[in-house]
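Let's practice the habit of predicting before peeking. Look at the sequence and jot down your guess about where helices and strands might fall. Then scroll down.
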Amino acid sequence: MSTRNTMLRSLHDLGLAAWFGGSLMGAVGVNGAARDEGGTWAATARIAGSGWAKWTPVNAAAIATHLFGSGGLLAANAPRVAAQQGVAASTLAKTVLTGAALAATAYSRVLGKKIELAASSDPQDAEKAAKHPIDTDKAQRHLACLQWAVPALTGGLVVLNALHGEQQRPAEQLHGVWERARTLAPHMPSLGHLTH
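Done guessing? Here is the structure:
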């Protein structure tokens, strides 16, 4: 019999929702508003940078919340991951997608910070930017791709989360456990033969 993990699920889902929604809103809203209001490249970069900088601590908290919930759910569901066919594969896919989303998020913040420094009118920021010059056109192209990659990757996590929910249905669990057992003992009949 499965136990409830309401708190872990809530942390997992709320963290992922904020990560996905915030990254999508930033790519559409923050960047769009900066383009509309900026006028010059530097002003646009400063506006976008300011918006993304305000979002960064909230995003970090959302990611940490999601990862904590994910780790707890993985520990709680470890027996099912091992015993039910298909669950290990979807769990591995979620892990890979989470890693890719984390990498894209981190790298986009690094690029955003570099662009923010290059566009800054503050003399101290200009000095820092001069010590680590970047090709701002190339950095902005990479950043534009990454800022769409993060919502795409986290959206993929939402889809895999839905798949995990379906795999937890009692009939799916029974079928998956039976099929896993059949891979270990191929002479066993299929579940369909037993129900007819």
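How did you do? Residues 41-76 form the longest helix (36 residues).
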